[in-house]
Design goal:
The protein is an alpha/beta fold. The chain contains 6 helices and 9 strands; from the N terminus they run ββαβααβαβαββββα. A 5-stranded mixed β-sheet has the order 5-4-3-8-9.
């Protein structure tokens, strides 16, 4: 499992781009995690799945609500990572109104999640391999803070808890 002080793994995540811009086409675009975090302070939070109860009602909304506070605290970007495909993450982004606040990153095959060592097997609940619930602060690709939730809990990876680590 990744630890505080370690560099993020070499991995690719995907984001659904709905407005064509320089370097991005409309549709799923791949992004190199190390390249995207180089020279930036990024909060990355992972969760079990798009449109699931706690994730949709509490986890994502907290980061959307506090996006300006994160920016004021020196955070360049906020990423939500889930083991879902880019189309599902794009639909969830629209539903959660994350545009300009939280980047909804798809890890469809769980490659990034496994490289972090933060996967969990929810096959018995019909969900397959998913991410544990966590949040981290990353500075220039290096993990500075890592909060991992106990199974079934939502106490340390919420936006307020991560904001508290930045002050």
């Amino acid at each position: 499992m990744i630890q505080v002080g370690e560099k993020l793994p070499d991995a690719i995540v995907y984001e659904l781009i709905e407005d064509e811009r320089e370097g991005c086409t409309i549709g799923p675009n791949s992004f190199d995690v190390r390249e995207q975090t180089a020279g930036k302070r990024v909060v990355i939070f992972g969760l079990p799945g798009a449109f699931t109860p706690t994730c949709s009602a509490r986890h994502v909304p907290g980061y959307v609500e506090h996006a300006a506070a994160f920016q004021a605290a020196g955070i360049d970007e906020i990423w939500c990572v889930s083991v879902n495909d880019a189309f599902v993450m794009g639909a969830w982004a629209r539903d959660q109104h994350t545009s300009g606040k939280v980047r909804m990153m798809a890890d469809g095959s769980a490659a990034f999640t496994r490289a972090l060592g933060l996967e969990q097997d929810l096959s018995a609940r019909g969900m397959g391999i998913r991410s544990q619930r966590y949040a981290m602060v990353v500075d220039d690709g290096v993990v500075k803070t890592l909060n991992i939730e106990a199974p079934g809990k939502f106490e340390v990876s919420d936006a307020a808890s991560i904001l508290a680590t930045l002050s």
